Amino acid sequence: MKKALKIYLILLLSIVSCKKEKAVSIETVDKPGTFSKNAMVVSAREEASKIGIATLKKGGNVFDALMATEMALSVTYPFAGSIGGGGFLVYRLADGEKGALDYREKAPLAANKDMYLDENGEVIKGKSTIGGMAVGVPGGIAGIFEAHQKFGNLEIEDILKPVIELATNGYAVTQMQHERFLEYDSLFVAVNGKPILYSKQIKPGDTIRNLKLAETLTRIATNGRDEFYKGKTAEILVDFLQNHDGIITLDDLSRYQAKWRKPIEFRYDNYNVISMPPPSSGGICLGQIMTMLEPFDLKDFGHNSVKYIQALSETEKRAYADRSYYLGDPDFVEIPTKMLLSHVYAQERMADFTFEAATPSDSISYGRIAGFESDETTHYSIVDQFGNAIAVTVTLNGAYGSKLFIDELGFFLNNEMDDFSSKPGVPNMFGLLGAEANSIAPEKRMLSSMTPTLVEKDGELFMSVGTPGGSTIITSVLQTILNVVEFNMPMQKAIDQKRFHHQWLPDEIRMEPNGFPKTTIKTLNELGYKTNESRSPIIGKVNGILILDDGTIEGGADKRGDDTAIGY
Ligand code: GLY
């Protein structure tokens, strides 16, 4: 890529990155959720939730609905999604069997530890986030086929038919989507060297048809998973990337495999939490935080009170410090999971905490950081009429991933390589620090924060929950679970609550604006906590499903986005 073009892209990227997602006013007063008796799908788009429910009504189960919903999101929600990216699935079958599927992207064979450093060993800005070098080998198609092969009921062609029709006939652009297309338009053109499908003057209510994606999905429906990894689609993808400075080869694609993993499980009071293991940090961090929190009487402190915010922030700091040091791809590094999740270790970690003053982050570990981009991923939850449940979080990493759009195939490619630590001590776009455990190596999976989570109560399915939000994913899932189990909120109300976040570094509590009383913020500041209400107009877009005592299923969809719950 020409030097002048690169500088222009980086400048453009910083401008877009500095733009904030619009604040959305969230009504916190008893907004009802969506209730049903049989099944529920909650996803980032109404069309995807509808297709998911229709798949269940045809006799499909959660794994059939996974394929339908996820591919419908790839049509209607190009902002995130997995066809050019990857994701994680956590499941619980009606008989109580649990498991996790890792279809995270991985580094290409030609990747190396220093691939984003210049001759002076400094990180080259933008190289791991935009364009061909940012792209990890996509895992999305491998994941949905692996899940379907093991557990699915319906024929692939039947599942994908309505999705292909959706791509062919089109869907209506929402107000939020219109604003995002406008915001990223100049970057799309700059990165791709020409306007793309979403670059036109698209207004809210206009119909977008993605005929190339319909063709890609038709080939996949006919030829199966290998179409993406070894067939015509693979050839087009590799050809495209090689013309855009990429290093992914046909060998990389043909070697990709989704992997079944043992989920992280831990107790919190009389709940059993089941979440995603490494290469996600989500399950371990959530487990560490909740284990450190368990001795506190959070209900007594009061929801979003000073003491509540202190307890969560201090436990979060310690878990995120451990994350940066210990966690990475378990096929490459040894992770002391048992120790990190133990009560003894939790007690040791909190030994220096008092409510009298904040524990400064640099006394927990070292390092200073700054600089973020927006944090885009998407989560959907499904419970079927048979009692099976899934929580699935998928991602392209940044908004529209690398911003590279393959015209001929109709989808964006991820920029997941930025989730590696390009250089120890230098933060990635979420401000997260990494160490050796998350350094780049050929075929290694980059560390994630995605936290698709299921909760059992008294041995029965109780909740399915998850969210996008980069580094804030773990703490948004945490607060949503606590809102339900500590403060007895129904699903929708638990999701609607204002959220806050601490990730160790930077040493500040990030808060959604105007969600916390001035007196609370003043007291936190007096105790030595820095607060930041301007960084994130919204934190997370949580989607979740709760099983109520009488068996009714409540779907909660985050009004911070276009998310929609549909049940039957
Ligand atoms: N790309 C965001 C994550 O995996 O955490």
Which percent range describes the beta-strand content?
15-25%
Structural class: alpha+beta
Taking pLDDT < 50 over at least 5 consecutive residues as the criterion, the unreliable ranges are 1-5, 7-29, 366-374
Most strands sheet: 7 strands, antiparallel
Estimated radius of gyration? 22 Å
- Give the number of helices: 19
Number of strands: 21
- Average pLDDT score: 92
Q: What coarse outline follows from CA principal-axis ratios? A: globular
Q: What portion of residues is helical?
A: 25-40%
What does this structure look like?
This protein has helices at residues 3-18, 46-57, 62-76, 140-151, 156-169, 175-192, 211-223, 226-229, 232-242, 250-255, 282-293, 298-301, 306-326, 337-340, 343-349, 361-364, 473-485, 491-496, 518-526; strands at residues 34-36, 40-43, 86-92, 98-103, 171-172, 207-208, 259-261, 264-268, 271-275, 377-383, 389-395, 405-406, 411-412, 453-457, 460-466, 500-501, 509-511, 531-532, 543-547, 553-557, 564-567. With 568 residues, the protein is an alpha+beta fold. Strands 1-20-19-15-14-9-8 form a 7-stranded antiparallel sheet. The chain has a 7-stranded antiparallel sheet with strand order 7-4-3-11-10-2-21. It has a 3-stranded mixed sheet with strand order 16-17-18. Helix 1 (3-18) packs antiparallel against helix 6 (175-192), helix 3 (62-76) packs parallel to helix 5 and helix 11 (282-293) packs across helix 15 (343-349). The longest helix is centred in the middle third of the chain and has 21 residues, at 306-326. The model is unreliable at 1-5, 7-29 and 366-374 (pLDDT under 50). Glycine (GLY) binds next to loops.
